[in-house]
């Protein structure tokens, strides 16, 4: 019975050990166990490392002591060997035995220099800079002594061997070796003191290591405790954040005892984040989001799904309203900025309408009512696949669907297109649209044009309302444009007439200027002619006769030469004043002068006393403005007596 109880207690004890001791990082229990194991291992490592460091320091100190002794011995040997070479030099000078001379050379090259090199190597390994400096100076000083010894030996001169310079060099050598040994002695003493100090510091070092081990172990223990508390606090903080309406980051799962709680909190956080993203997307107007909350199950999931559907309907209606208003404003702006030419306006309008309604083809017709008996529906703009189409087309009222729309004054919408009504050609081939919308552009029930749109997609009610609204604005613009064009035409005609009148006035002005210039020229010629006539009248005898040969007038010179005056002869026959030699009939003379323009002949003037004066008569016609001869002027030049 006692054995059974003992076995049961062992099993319970064994079970309790497995329960409370685990070696892993996944559980809090395993972390605590590993922490205590680390503390023990760290304490052991510190003890081993401190013992190793102390032994290493002791060994290094001993090595330095041995190195110091060897270096000091080498320095003494160098000093002794140099002294020996000096003694050998004295013996050689005294005996001139080559054996001593060879021994000197052998000592320098086989003993002194190798030992100096060995000394240099040891002190550099030792690392004392003062010793290194003295050794370098020794190495540089020895060749001087050797050189002076060799010079004394070669000259067999005791004086040079006992010279003050050589003695000073040897003394300096002694100083250098002594300095090296003293420095080495100091270093050896310091090494011994370091070893003794290390031995004295062993208890202190062990105490310090124990304290460090205790501190580190305590830190490990605190770290373990802190990590456990942090995990608990981590869970607590995330729960508090959720309780305050905040969404913490997803917690990392682990295999410790808190993992089931963390997994539940993460699932709750994920669903709440889904609600947040759902609200953000819905707030931005994206009602087609694939985000689901609680898989659209439960009271909250179903309520949110229904809310999204209701908001979707409201947003769609608002989107259509915004689309409608923006489109009306856009085409109103186009109509204001492009109301000068109906062709350009039509092309711009139909291209924008096709693009704005997501159509693939469109046409815009205007109504020509210049002849009420022959109304024409004329294609002004066509657009398809983002390109303007330049097509000439003219319809009559009632002809085709466009003409029918004109007569009915209502839009026509077709989702079943008549065969061969219209086809859409593109780089991918040819196909027929599935929906046609034909809408009149009317104002006060008067149709000013027709809009025709084709698409592969159906036109909704807001599309039809929009086209009717825009069509009304276009009709108003077309009406104003037609009035403007008529006004412009009348204005152009008026301007043309004004330009013609201005041209005539300009021509008349030029003619007046030319006439004025002509008049000025005539006046100038008249003045010249008057001056000429006056000169002629003063110096020459002149008489004028009419068509019948009657005397009209004589000048002052002729009066002076003949004694006659104009009053005496006015209206008298020419023969009263002069006779030509042939005494021809005046009628013949008149005709001859007017035909030939001038005539010269010998003649005789008869003065008042009846005496004859022989002269040469130069006769010429005097014409009116039309060039008709009105009278004849004769200039009489007295003949000189032979």
Summarize the structure.
The protein is of the alpha+beta class and 642 residues long.
Unreliable sequence segments = 9-15, 424-429
Average residue-wise pLDDT: 76
Main sheet, how many strands, which sense, barrel? 7 strands, antiparallel
Radius of gyration: 72 Å
Quick one: overall form? elongated
Number of strands: 15
Helix content: 55-70%
- Determine the number of helices (DSSP H or I, runs of at least 4 residues): 14
Sequence of secondary-structure elements: HHHHHHHHHEEEEHEEEEEHEEHHEHEEE
List keywords for this structure.
642 residues, alpha+beta, 7-stranded antiparallel beta sheet, 6-stranded antiparallel beta sheet, 65% helix
Walkthrough of the structure:
The structure is a single chain. The protein is α+β, with helices and mostly antiparallel strands. It has 14 helices and 15 strands. The protein has helices at residues 2-20, 28-95, 98-126, 129-155, 158-161, 164-243, 259-283, 298-337, 342-356, 400-408, 461-539, 556-562, 566-569, 586-596; strands spanning 361-368, 376-384, 387-389, 394-395, 412-414, 424-426, 429-431, 435-443, 446-455, 541-545, 551-554, 578-580, 599-606, 612-623, 629-638. The strands form three sheets. Strands 1, 2, 3, 4, 5, 8 and 9 form a seven-stranded antiparallel β-sheet that branches. It has a six-stranded antiparallel β-sheet with strand order 11-10-15-14-13-12, sandwiched between helices. Strand 14 (612-623) and strand 15 form a beta hairpin. Helix 8 runs parallel beside helix 11 (461-539). The longest helix has 80 residues, at 164-243. The protein is elongated. The N and C termini lie far apart (210 Å). Mean pLDDT is 76; it is low at 9-15 and 424-429.
